[in-house]
Amino acid sequence: MTSLTDRKNAAISRGVGMTTQIYAERAENAEIWDAEGNRYIDFAAGIAVVNTGHRHPRVVQAVRDQLDRFTHTCHQVVPYESYVALAERLNAAVPGDWPKKTAFYTTGAEAVENAVKIARHYTGRAGVVAFSGGFHGRTYLGMSLTGKVQPYKAGFGPMMNDIWHLPFPVELHDTSQQDALAALDRLFKSDIDPARVAAIVVEPVQGEGGFYEVPPGFMQRLREICDQYSMLLIADEVQTGFARTGRLFAMEHHGVAADLTTMAKGLGGGLPISAVTGRAEVIDSPAPGGLGGTYAGNPLAVAAAHAVLDVIAEEDLCARATRLGQRLKQRLAGIAHDVPEIVDIRGPGFMNAVEFNIAGSDKPNPEMTNRVREEALGRNLILLTCGVHGNVIRFLAPLTIPEAVFDEALDILEDSIRAARS
User: Fold this and answer.
1) Considering only CA atoms, which of 403, 404, 399, 409 is closest in space to residue 320?
2) Are strands 232-236 and 274-279 parallel, antiparallel or unpaired?
3) Which residue in 157, 186, 198, 297 has its CB near the most CB atoms, within 10 A?
4) pLDDT by residue (tens digit) across 137-178?
5) Dihedral angle at the C-alpha atoms of 311, 316, 322, 326, nearest 10 degrees?
6) DSSP letter string over 271-327?
7) Hey, which residues does 384 pair with through a beta bridge?
8) pTM, whole model, 2 decimals?
9) CA pair distance 305, 415, nearest whole angstrom
10) Does residue 308 register a pLDDT over 90?
């Protein structure tokens, strides 16, 4: 009999990478069972999508109820109240003490692309500044904004023009926020007139880049620079949004608001939906028809998103994210006492990471990092790696993970780290 892996290899593009060879049969909260009946603890959550857990009863019921009404009309043809109501909720929730409006899309990359479209239209400028290590999608504009070559840009030809990159401030890697700001100053002096820059795009916590958080005070300086030169600040909250960092949005940790906020992943609880929310006068700049998409704001996904917001509030998932993250980081700190390869443990809320170097050096250790992932998978715990050097493990378990399952996962994690050293 042909295996599922053989069938996949014969039928699906090699470019669609797979972290595991697990084929899901069913899932519940923080657990997945494969086609052979094996149980796994999920510390990936579909890459921060099911923050409220796989098949949360509230989300499932909301989608079932919507199925009984209608599944698609295209909001641009026959609109529906739930789309309007979700926009109202996001307008109220996204940081920023000013009138806001929202437009819905399907994927995070679409949200980022449309934020840039809106910024360019509103400002009449073309330039966009992004950061090394950032990830903003796999479309051509998304790739161009992304600050990581492998595997996202390699071999795909010229990137889009008028995209400029700055070093992201990571003290661990000898780049201070002063270094990053000095690089921005040099950029404006040598490469692009700030009067031609439409926006600066930044992740409050880098996702694929290694879960590095914007350092204190840096976001405030970006806000001041954007105001000085009449640029827009775009916060890419695709991975950080919806309670993952201990706040509904990670920008709440920084005390400043972006002009435009992009979101996706955790908003839909497993259904594809994304959004751009921001200053009303900015979002209203494009003419009718300039924004949208056939599936944008699909009614099933909108119903799921309403349920997700309800669950986050009613189950106090922001506070739970903070508690879970503290426990995870404490456990990792205990392991680090006799595992010198661990050089950093970080992350707000339950958006955490551990970084590995070769013991006694500042050289990244992607080999050990991957061994930890493989050891954990062999013990039925799903982990993800990230970082420009591939030496970071990121933790993205559902915020609803049961305590007993969380304890079990921490034990597996410790055993896996220690086994990876031998």
Assistant:
1) 399
2) unpaired
3) 297
4) 999 999 999 999 988 999 998 999 999 999 999 999 999 999
5) -100
6) S--EEEEEEHHHHT-SPTTSS--TTTT-HHHHHHHHHHHHHHHHTTHHHHHHHHHHH
7) 394
8) 0.96
9) 37
10) yes
Eight-state DSSP code of residue 14: T
CA gap 103, 148 in Å, rounded: 28
Burial of residue 287 (number of CB atoms within 10 Å: 0-12, 13-18, 19+)? exposed
> Could you give the CA distance from residue 238 to residue 258 in angstroms, rounded to a whole number?
14
In sequence order, the β-bridge partners of residue 392 are 355, 386
Residue from 61, 64, 60, 86 nearest 75 by CA: 86
Helix (H, G, I), strand (E, B) or coil at 374: helix
Query: Locate tokens 């010198």: which residue?
Result: 340
| Locus of tokens 């061994």 | 371
Q: Which two tokens stand for residue 120?
A: 């360019």
**N residues, the chain:** 422
Cα distance between residue 4 and residue 23, in whole Å = 8
377's tokens: 């998978």
Structure-token pair, residue 125: 């400028």
